[in-house]
Amino acid sequence: MATNYDYDVLYLGAGHGTFDGAIPLAGTGKKVAVVEAEAIGGTCPNWGCNAKIALDAPVALTREQERIKDQLNGEQSTINWTANMSRKHSIIDVLPGAIEGMMKDAGIDVIKGYGKLTDAHTVEVDGEQKTADKIVIATGLTPHKLNIPGTELAHNSKDFLALTHLPKRITIVGGGYIAMEFATIANAAGAEVTVMLHSDVALRPFYQPFVKKVLVDLQRRGVHFVKNSNVRGFKKVDDALAVEYGEDDTLATDWILDATGRVPNVHGLGLEEVGVKFDERHGIDVNDHLQTSVENIYASGDVINSKQPKLTPTAIFETTYLTSLFSGQTTDPIDFPAVGTNAFTSPRISEAGVSVAEAEKDDNYKVVKADLSADWYYQVDNDSIAERALVFDKEGHLVGASEVSSHAVESINTLLPAIEFKYTKEQLGRIIQIFPSVASDVWATI
Ligand SMILES: Cc1cc2nc3c(=O)[nH]c(=O)nc-3n(C[C@H](O)[C@H](O)[C@H](O)COP(=O)(O)OP(=O)(O)OC[C@H]3O[C@@H](n4cnc5c(N)ncnc54)[C@H](O)[C@@H]3O)c2cc1C
Ligand SMILES: NC(=O)c1ccc[n+]([C@@H]2O[C@H](COP(=O)([O-])OP(=O)(O)OC[C@H]3O[C@@H](n4cnc5c(N)ncnc54)[C@H](O)[C@@H]3O)[C@@H](O)[C@H]2O)c1
Q1: Nearest to residue 393, comparing CAs of 420, 359, 421?
Q2: Which residues of the chain fall short of a pLDDT of 70?
Q3: Looking only at Cα atoms, what is the longest distance across the chain?
Q4: For ligand 2, atom 14: residue with the closest CA
Q5: How many CB atoms lie within 10 A of CB 177?
Q6: 259 lines ligand 2 (CB under 6 A)
Q7: Torsion over CA of 318, 180, 229 and 167, rounded to 10 degrees?
Q8: What is the predicted pLDDT for the residue at 213?
Q9: Binding residue ranges
Q10: Cα 154 to the chain's mean position, in Å?
Q11: Which residues does the UniProt record annotate as the domain Pyridine nucleotide-disulphide oxidoreductase dimerisation (predicted)?
């Protein structure tokens, strides 16, 4: 314990960028505090991944039922929105308490309130000064809000994940993860959905031929896409809303989701005063030890200005690295593995490693594509929108993979060890997967 300070390490924010590392750090005997302004657990459990996947479960199930309807008797099931939302609450609302309990059991002081740096070793919470040898800023991101007339009439992802009744007409502005995942859920649950794209591209980081397949399917299901939409403003008209877009077009709607991105929580933290450098749009600058421009202040998770995808597993990897650093288990720089990423549309699009688009432009790689709708295992549940692209280097090692299908998440997760550890043919042959399964199916192709 650093004798001059209240704590060895104080974390600002209690999301995955903190608690997955803070708990084992406290286990090493360090004195640890975590300051949280809103909800313990942060975005992912409360208004991100966990909340979203809870609402998505019946979507995936009804899609599977639809695919195998010829083998079933009876009606196609529909989604009961209110019951689905109430189920989401029953499994999500306990998480902050459970995470707080784990932190307290590990001996962490959990401090509720908004934290602000007053000097390099001091954080003020509700007028009280807490000092620490090291401080970790893990304050995450917050929804971007369009700067247009009527922006206050639009809602954000957090509001969507708490909707008690599904509006009849929903307009979604944006074409990223949140826009496409929530368009999928709302459409499957029966809403009339319009997606206002900024350009003519959605899910930009993903392999576009696969994205197109998802868009075509959503269109077939009634989702309306407006490309190059130029959304200019929102208005209240009687009991409804109007979205003003294009040159002078108007769309009537009942509920608007502003899904135009997420921006770093860097304001009001005292960063300028203490000398922590950051970029308004991309977050806090860190070196390869996640150290900011102030020696004893580190950053972790979504708030970092980094090329890594801003995802829960990345945040966990970063805070776990800091635990190793602070407890003396490593002095090495952080070394990111290939990070798997997925758009939870239906079908899913998953990828990891070298992107197919990049590999197609580079002679050092070979891309092998497969139409999975012709694969017997994908035919079992009629997974007809199903394609995979694998990227190999000159030595024949798998270095990247992308898949669109209902089973894409399992496929890409299965391939991650082969990508990360560059298994030889002999090593690949030593793995015997359970058969029949997605894992054994994809493993046989590498
Ligand atoms: C709708 C949605 C769906 C998502 N789905 C997925 C998914 O399927 N898979 C995936 O991997 N990722 C997903 N993500 C991303 C994932 O949620 C984030 O990458 C992850 O939560 C980042 O963790 P973090 O700890 O860095 O930030 P956060 O979880 O955002 O935690 C930051 C915390 O800091 C607190 N805070 C901020 N300022 C202060 C302050 N001054 N004092 C005290 N506390 C403060 C905030 O209240 C917050 O609790 C999703 C995100 C959203 C919004
Ligand atoms: N499945 C997952 O892992 C998952 C799911 C949801 C969110 N997330 C994380 O949360 C982050 C934020 O998600 P997001 O969807 O808000 O952001 P995003 O960066 O993925 O997408 C933002 C979208 O808004 C569009 N946009 C920007 N300005 C616009 C304008 N003026 N008019 C219309 N469109 C505009 C962009 O073109 C883009 O399509 C993601 O980058 C990801 O890190 C991950």
Answers
A1: 359
A2: 1-3
A3: 72
A4: 261
A5: 25
A6: yes
A7: -120
A8: 98
A9: 115, 174-181, 261, 302
A10: 22
A11: 343-441
